[in-house]
C-alpha cells in the first residue's frame, strides 16, 4: 500500500496522480500530492515507479502494518534506501541499468564489437 509522499523530495510533477489506476492521490494546497484514499491502493507500484524524484514509498504489504510508523518516516526510509528502491530494482531512473541488460553475460572489453566478439 502507498505509505508516504516525501514533501522534501517531491517536485509536484503530478505523475503519481496521473498514473494511479484507483485515484488514491489528490493535489494538496501546496501542490504536493496527498494520499487521500489510502484503502483504495492496489499496491501496483505505478506511482513509485513513475516518480522521477524518488519521493514515494509503497509498502509491498497489501494491508497496513500494525505499527506503520516506520513506513511513514521519510528519514528512516531514506536512510534504509527504500525511497525509490522499486524504481532502482526495475532499472528506471537516471544512471540506472535496466534489469534486462544487467545479467546478460560478461561485460565486453572496451572497443570490442558485440557481434563478432
Description:
This is 4Fe-4S dicluster domain-containing protein. Residues 96-117 are annotated as: Disordered. InterPro entries: 4Fe4S_Fe-S-bd, 4Fe4S_Fe_S_CS, Fe-S_Ferredoxin. Pfam families: Fer4_9. The protein is of the alpha+beta class and 117 residues long. It has a single domain, classed as Alpha-Beta Plaits (2-Layer Sandwich), CATH 3.30.70. 22% of the residues lie in helices and 11% in strands. The protein has 5 helices and 4 strands; from the N terminus they run βαββαβααα. The chain has helices spanning 15-19, 46-50, 74-79, 85-90, 99-102, and strands at 2-5, 25-27, 33-35, 56-58. Strands 1-4 form a two-stranded antiparallel ribbon. The protein has a two-stranded antiparallel ribbon with strand order 2-3. The N and C termini lie far apart (46 Å). The mean pLDDT is 80.
Amino acid at each position: 500500500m502507498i505509505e508516504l509522499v516525501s514533501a522534501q523530495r517531491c517536485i509536484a510533477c503530478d505523475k503519481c496522480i496521473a498514473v494511479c489506476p484507483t485515484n488514491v492521490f489528490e493535489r494538496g494546497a501546496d501542490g504536493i500530492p496527498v494520499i487521500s484514499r489510502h484503502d483504495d491502493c492496489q499496491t501496483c507500484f505505478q506511482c513509485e515507479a513513475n516518480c522521477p524524484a524518488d519521493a514515494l514509498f509503497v509498502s509491498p504489504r497489501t494491508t497496513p502494518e500494525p505499527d506503520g510508523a516506520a513506513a511513514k518516516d521519510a528519514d528512516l526510509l531514506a536512510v534504509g534506501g527504500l525511497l525509490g528502491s522499486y524504481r532502482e530494482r526495475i532499472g528506471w531512473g537516471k544512471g540506472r541499468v535496466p534489469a534486462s541488460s544487467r545479467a546478460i553475460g560478461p561485460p565486453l572489453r572496451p572497443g570490442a564489437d558485440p557481434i563478432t566478439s
